Amino acid sequence: MAPQRRLTGWVGIYKPRRHASCVAPKPHIPLELKLGPFTVDEARTAGLSPTALRGKSWLRLSNGLYCWRELADDHWKLLSAWHRLSPEALFAGHTAAWLHGIDLDRPNVIEVIVPASSGTRSRPGVIVRRSKIATADVTTVRGLRATTVMRTLSDLCSRLESVEALALIDSALRLKLVDKTSVTRAARDCLRSLGALAEPAESPMETRLRWILMQAGLPRPQVQFDLTDHQGRFIGRADLYYPSARLVVEYDGLNHRDRLIQDNRRQNLILGAGYRLLRFTAADIRERRDAIASQVRTALSAGVAASARRPAAARR
After folding, report:
1. What predicted TM-score, i.e. pTM, was given to this entire model?
2. What does the H/E/C string look like for the chain?
3. Which domain covers residue 51, as residue numbers?
């Protein structure tokens, strides 16, 4: 019998180390070019060639204008760059809404309006529209020219789904950028009609939840209603509320898990004070709209019937 050989070395997959000469050199990022957008001449002065600007570290904003790619995450500086490129440009649409602080995600595309004679053109990441804008529809936000809040809402109402436009109007109302009277007297029909439904909702998802109920033919609920117990003490604020049925309808956002204990205590106070409570999530709003409407309709009917049976002195 042949003697068994003993393996004393490590057995595994060999992964050769990359030689230093094979590793791409770290790109040179001059400090002065990290501060804001720059021209090709400014890049040359800082020691970069036009060829170097084709690398992944740099973002081409337009013909002859670049910025450090990590700077693009600062949307204000990126918009300032476009303002520098085209001083006659006016930020509009979603970009203007974001500038005004209306509740929406940072736009992935910059929208501007320029005069008909402007040479500025649309390109990836930028939508350019040509139009003559009245002076009354122009304002300045942190040094950047943009359409006014009313003009911005009017433009977006004509392009967006009704519920999404309503969410923007709700946000503008909550932030006191506009008032109910101004939107219901707007020149554009779509803004007037949606303005009549607008309320100062705390989030776009609350607006979408309210929209589902209205579209299902249910009564319009009260928004951000202060709830009190039997002694008149404040116990919480309802996202949506139906007084006739003492029914509270809530949207549980992403931060619900972070404040679970606080929300549970609040729920106990609401139920203990004799209110009915329904809670819905983003998944419900996206996928179970009919179920939402059905549950609210059932709870409304039960709540109204129960209120009718209570003595008048006990009704709130």
Report:
1. 0.78
2. CCCCCCCCCCCCCCCCCCCHHHCCCCCCCCHHHHCCCEEHHHHHHCCCCCCHHHCCCEEEEECCEEEEHHHHHCHHHHHHHHHHHCCCCEECHHHHHHHCCCCCCCCCCEEEEECCCCCCCCECCEEEEECCCCHHHEEEECCEEEECHHHHHHHHHCCCCHHHHHHHHHHHHHCCCCCHHHHHCCCCHHHHHHHCCCCCCCCHHHHHHHHHHHHCCCCCCEEEEEEECCCCCEEEEEEEEEHHHCEEEEECCHHHCCCHHHHHHHHHHHHHCCCEEEEECHHHHHHCHHHHHHHHHHHHHHHHHHHHHCCHHHCC
3. 32-73
